[in-house]
Request: fold
Amino acid sequence: MELIQRFPLKTIKNDREHGRASAMVSELMGRKLDGGAGDYLDTLVVLVNKYEDEHHAIDGNMTPREALRALMEANGLSQAEIGQIIGSESAVSMFMKGDRGLSKSQIKKLADRFKVDASVFID
Reply:
């Protein structure tokens, strides 16, 4: 299977491997996957999340902005990509500058995407 050749299913040991695995997850998300590709994606997400939990855990003392920055960095995502997730790049920019908060809908989308509790993004 081409996917396994591009990123074999194995324990992620460093940030470089994490970046490659996260890129693969991003590439596959939202696609209609057939056969074992869906199982591959599910397993890869588990491996990525395990690495993130062990190496890039969200500190309970972080502000919502700091938490989002940490999640973006850990997942190799840009502000534009976060904008695609929540539906507005300008909303991400204003949030990151501290000019506004996130809507309930945007918080839910981020929590779902990063598999974290929604309270991470609430001031």
Summary: The first helix runs from residue 2 to 6.
